Amino acid sequence: MRKFMFVLLAVAISGLPALAGLAVADDAAKAPEKKADKACPKTAKAKKGAKKVTGVVESVDAATMKLMVKTGAGKKAKVEEIVVGTAKVTKDGKDATLAEIVAGDKVTVKMDCSVDPAVVASVDAKTPKAPKAKKAKKG
């Protein structure tokens, strides 16, 4: 009987770290869900599971497949980090690579919010138009 109690106690004690690990894993599983909700507001999920991020490229890191996009203007401006991954990339209407996108390009990123976590579906960049030269006044 003593051996049985000892074995039972040993099993109970050795099982506690495993149960604690399950609690940590459960919390970790919930964390991406919250991140996806921030990336895709509930209104975007209701509308075909898509979200658009439009702005100006601040920087590009082709090695890590990341874009830094400035959205908004003035005090409401913010910079969003977007991981492009294997999304389709176009520039000026033609297929392109992420390395072809440069700071200052206008960009529209379409995100697929129907999956969790949300993923980038496509990146469409446009080269900004050069400002028109002013005509000299005739004097």
Instruction: List the uncertain runs.
Output: 18-38
Q: Which CATH class of the domain at 40-126 applies here? A: Mainly Beta
Integer average pLDDT: 75
Q: What is the share of helical residues?
A: 25-40%
**CATH homology group of the domain at 40-126:** Copper binding periplasmic protein CusF
Can you list the strand order of the major beta sheet? 3-2-1-6-7-4-5
The value of Rg in angstroms is: 25 Å
What general outline do the C-alpha atoms trace?
Answer: elongated
Strand content: 25-35%
What is the N-to-C succession of helices and strands?
HHEEEEEEE
Number of strand segments:
7
CATH architecture of the domain at 40-126: Beta Barrel
Q: How large is the count of helical segments? A: 2
Main pleated-sheet profile: 7 strands, mixed
CATH topology of the domain at 40-126, which one? OB fold (Dihydrolipoamide Acetyltransferase, E2P)
> Between the first and last Cα atoms, what is the distance in angstroms?
113 Å
Structural class: alpha+beta
